[in-house]
Design a protein that fits this description.
Blueprint (H helix, E strand, L loop, with lengths): L5 H19 L10 H8 L10 H12 L21 H13 L6 H22 L6 E5 L2 H19 L5 E7 L4 H10 L2 E5 L9 H14 L2 E9 L11 H10 L3 E5 L24 E4 L1 H4 L7 E5 L2 H8 L30 H10 L1 H24 L3 E3 L7 E6 L4 H13 L8 E3 L2 E7 L7 H8 L3
Helix pairs in contact: 1-3, 4-12, 5-12, 6-7, 6-11, 8-9, 13-15
Bound molecules: pyridoxal-5'-phosphate (PLP).
The site of pyridoxal-5'-phosphate has 13 residues, from α6.
Length: 448
């Protein structure tokens, strides 16, 4: 619509200046507003003649951006927040400026090569063989679904007479597994975790055997969680791997949040057994300091995934050779090279910096748990396995939790929405940001 004239150039300077400011200064937390309220202020921004770049940018920076909670604020400990490195965010500008196509090797070879090296780092941390490989997809939800579709295809080949299929996972598994089961029209065999809140191989094996003995339904995949989202619990991966493979079933590890900590020596042993995975996922946009959105999906045997996910069409056949096209490994075709900001930061900083930053967040989580334990009004739910610290407030009804949380955001102190555990309201700190200091935690605890 415009050549790169002086008007575009001046907008470029404005956008870069805003981006730099946003990256340099601690962002305010900000918060949501209603659609009515926003409409009153900005009106309909889509007009026949256009607002012009300057005006549209002002609408965004002055109004819309402030109606978005800053996920990278050091006292945003909600859900799983985000903490991209400055390098990864800066390089995201390059990705945006370059119109890179990440679906095929032919079009994106250089970028895909770099993404694959970043995936290799994760595969090596997990102890997967050299043949392992995969792709960066949008998020853990798509990553889990893509892997499970491959798992079912593999099972169909081996057990062609099966008419009903099931996924086995812990009752504490992420909601995306239930979503995948629904999309795939398969059943979910939920395993009650043990007293330590982990799923174990013996309970899993017994439940699968019972299902197979009493129904026509066959389990085609076991999903173990490498760090549950609510409490950060890591299933007993080693015994699960054994029970799963002994029954000729696909072993998938959902580590969207937790597997990032594979690079942290202080907790690495908790993931023993992950090296047996047939597939795994981890979201660099959660705890590997990368911007939204990027999920690393890795298969032990990527050829199986390629058979299942490659799309065939007359205009696409030219791409189907023995090169590595990321489109072939998940449910997608066109794709942004969403792993590239992560790659750039990892390449520039080196992996030691990741280990260090990871250990810092783990240390803050341990110290935060200690402060919670010492707090007269609070009860720690569970010793943190990773970087999630969950607790209850003595004497509070569910509405008290919500009121406290709303006020904390309104006061712009922090963002900590309530969650629940075993039917009881809880609060949880998800600490993934190396800029979250123990003083930030104290500031929040002082309001409890
Ligand atoms: C966040 C999360 C997911 C879903 O990942 P998205 O990137 O939000 O789609 C799946 N599993 C676990 C364990 C998670 O923490």
């Amino acid at each position: 619509m415009h050549a790169f004239n002086s008007e575009v150039e001046s907008l470029a300077n404005e956008i870069l200046a805003y981006s730099l400011l946003r990256l340099k200064d601690d962002p305010p937390l900000d918060g949501p507003r209603t659609a009515e309220d926003l409409f009153q202020e900005v009106g309909n921004t889509i007009t026949a003649k256009g607002l012009g770049g300057h005006e549209a940018l002002e609408v965004f920076t002055n109004v819309l951006a402030k109606a978005c909670i800053s996920t990278d604020h050091p006292r945003n400990l909600a859900f799983i927040p985000s903490a991209p490195t400055e390098y990864s965010n800066l390089f995201d500008l390059v990705v945006g400026a370059s119109s890179l196509y990440g679906g095929s090797w032919q079009e994106g070879a250089g970028a895909v090569f770099a993404e694959n090296q970043a995936l290799r780092w994760i595969a090596d941390l997990a102890g997967l063989p050299q043949s392992a490989g995969g792709v960066f997809v949008q998020g853990g939800t798509i990553g889990n679904l893509s892997a499970l579709v491959v798992a079912r295809a593999a099972a169909r080949t081996k057990y062609p007479n099966t008419s009903r299929w099931a996924i086995a996972c812990s009752a504490e598994a992420h909601s995306s597994i239930a979503s995948a089961a629904q999309i795939m029209d398969v059943e979910l065999l939920k395993i009650e975790p043990g007293a330590d809140r982990k799923m174990h191989g013996d309970a899993l094996g017994a439940a699968i055997d019972q299902l197979h003995a009493t129904t026509q339904t066959r389990v085609f995949a076991v999903v173990a969680t490498g760090g549950t989202t609510n409490l950060g619990i890591i299933d007993d991966l080693a015994t699960i791997a054994e029970a799963t493979h002994a029954r000729d079933i696909w072993f998938h590890v959902d580590g969207a949040y937790g597997l990032a900590a594979l690079c942290a020596p202080s907790v690495r042993a908790k993931f023993n057994g992950v090296e047996q995975a047939d597939s795994l996922i981890v979201d660099p946009h959660k705890w590997l300091f990368a911007p939204f959105d990027a999920c690393a999906l890795i298969y032990r045997n990527p050829d199986l995934a390629k058979e299942v996910h490659t799309q065939h069409a007359s205009y696409l056949e030219t791409l189907h050779d023995d090169t590595w096209s990321p489109a072939d490994y998940a449910i997608h075709l066109t794709r942004r090279v969403r792993g590239l900001p992560f790659w750039f930061s990892l390449a520039a900083h080196g992996t030691d910096a990741y280990t260090e930053a990871m250990e810092e967040t783990l240390t803050v989580a341990r110290d935060a748990a200690e402060l919670v334990r010492q707090h007269p009004n609070l009860d720690l739910i569970h010793e943190p396995e990773l970087s999630i610290v969950a607790f209850t407030r003595k004497g509070w009804a569910p509405s008290d939790y919500q009121k406290w949380s709303d006020k904390l955001l309104a006061d712009q102190i922090g963002f900590i929405p309530p969650s629940s555990d075993k039917g009881q309201s809880i609060l949880r700190f998800a600490i993934v940001n190396p800029w979250t200091k123990i003083t930030d935690i104290s500031m929040i605890l002082d309001t409890l």
